[in-house]
Amino acid sequence: MTEKKKIAILGSTGSIGTQTLRVVEEHSDMFEVRVLTAHSNVELLIEQARAFNPDTVVIANEEKYEQLQEALADTDVKVYAGASALCDVVTLPSVDIVVSSLVGFAGLLPTIEAIKARKKIALANKETLVVAGELVMQLAIENHVPILPVDSEHSAIFQCLVGEGDNPVDKILLTASGGPFRKMAKEELKHIVAAQALRHPTWNMGAKITIDSATLMNKGFEMIEAKWLFGVEAERIEVVVHPQSIIHSAVQFADGAVKAQMGVPDMRMPIQYALTYPDRKPLTGERLDLFKLGMLTFERPNLDNFPCLAMAYEAARRKGNAACVMNAANEVANLAFRQDRISYPQLCDIIAKTMEHVAYVPTPSLEVYLQTDREARQYAASLI
Prior knowledge:
Strand content: 15-25%
Strand order of the largest sheet: 4-3-2-1-5-6-7
Mean pLDDT: 95
Number of helices: 17
Number of strands: 11
Helix content: 40-55%
Distance between the termini: 58 Å
Largest sheet: 7 strands, parallel
Low-confidence stretches: none
Shape: globular
């Protein structure tokens, strides 16, 4: 009997984390959960700990530590709190695979520590590669660590490349739903509020990522992530608006052939593929029915209405710490928009102004990335 793979899930109470646990439930003969972490959703973390009986749980919000500890006092589960604990638990000898599904910059340091500890990475935290892609990929090479993508688009690209060896890629076709505002005129965008932006047409995601999808910043992040994962420059990654979200992405090869990965919008499939690669295992759920589908449509993104995507291409072109600045400003502005403290156009303006203001560093170290993040956040906050 094959030994079970032992999993740590960073961000187990979020959208990716909860769906990863559904995959684990379906394949309990293959996987067991050793570590669960959450930012502050202590009630769900307690529920998950009782259901999956991990060795260790971490709550990043230290104010919730006592509640978590008391709730699990009758179990053998070890309880820790704080950001530093996230970096510690990924190095545990009992862990084989780290599912990095924390939201935002918070995922960077734990993912780096997991790579240094030579754990297989199932990466759902796109900011890790957006902020420090060059550094992270170099660490992965040095430590012989596979980074397997969990995002549906990057999983699709990965699946299209499997078996292609060194066959040259002409370009990557990165699909986007277009979000809830793709048909709006620019004047209308001035008046939208967070509640509208949080209604995504095809995917059920966390609040921060849903707003990023509405501004197309999420697609910009995914473009930068694809650049590092697959070694393709930004100018050869073409964003294609595909509202049905059936083609999850595609690759065009040197001979003109295009391979696409299709399926219903269900994140469990790319999660499971990252955990079981190179094998495909059965997965319950809806199947793609081409006869019901009827039609697939494609559009170019409107960069005038969605300047965040254009900013991401500029950050990718500049390299260095440019994308780190962009990400930090976006996290600050995204939260302010969700709190109805700024308008939709102001969200984009804050990012642009922060990218102009914070000093550019062409070859940053990890310490420079951390300092850049702090400076960019402070400046973006000062604009609100």
